[in-house]
């Protein structure tokens, strides 16, 4: 039976029919998995933002002189290297988006414990990996769009 309102209980079907919890042990392990995956999502988001920052510096270094005639081509990434960096960034973005959508679908099981485990995992992951980034926070503006 698919619930359409939040409920509390140990009987949950999460993402696929084969992932069902019927005991408190399996339910606890499921909540732990949701928590760990949520923390991992925040870790990957931090890596993605840092990778984007590094790859943008590789394509357009700011440490050189700002005069365009004196700057030359030294320090800039080659076309193939820049394409490889963009491709790797896109792959990381796609993988992280997939995890985010799976977390969203897990919350849509409408189980209160799953919801709390995912929100706590996201909060702990943000605290551990993303809250103390003064260098990244000043250089990368957080996008308020949930899908970006």
UniProtKB/TrEMBL annotation:
Main localization of the protein described in the UniProt heading: membrane
UniProt keyword list: Copper, Copper transport, Ion transport, Membrane, Transmembrane, Transmembrane helix, Transport
Transmembrane segments: 24-44, 83-104, 110-129
Top-level taxon of the source organism: Eukaryota
Subcellular location, record wording: Membrane
Record carries keyword Transport: yes
GO cellular component, one term: plasma membrane
Topology in membrane: Multi-pass membrane protein
Molecular function as annotated in GO: copper ion transmembrane transporter activity
Family: Belongs to the copper transporter (Ctr) (TC 1.A.56) family. SLC31A subfamily.
Protein name, entry field: Copper transport protein
Species whose genome carries this gene: Fagus sylvatica
């Amino acid at each position: 039976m698919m619930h359409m309102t939040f409920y509390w209980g140990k009987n949950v079907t999460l993402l696929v029919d084969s992932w069902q919890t019927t005991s408190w042990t399996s339910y606890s392990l499921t909540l732990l998995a949701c928590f760990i995956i949520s923390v991992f999502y925040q870790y990957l988001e931090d890596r993605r933002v840092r990778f984007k920052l590094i790859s943008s510096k590789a394509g357009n270094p700011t440490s050189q002189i700002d005069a365009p005639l004196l700057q030359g081509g030294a320090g800039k990434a080659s076309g193939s290297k820049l394409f490889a960096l963009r491709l790797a960034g896109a792959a990381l973005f796609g993988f992280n988006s997939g995890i985010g959508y799976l977390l969203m679908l897990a919350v849509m099981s409408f189980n209160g414990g799953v919801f709390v485990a995912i929100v706590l995992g996201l909060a702990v992951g943000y605290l551990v990996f993303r809250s103390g980034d003064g260098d990244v926070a000043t250089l990368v503006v957080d996008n308020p769009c949930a899908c970006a």
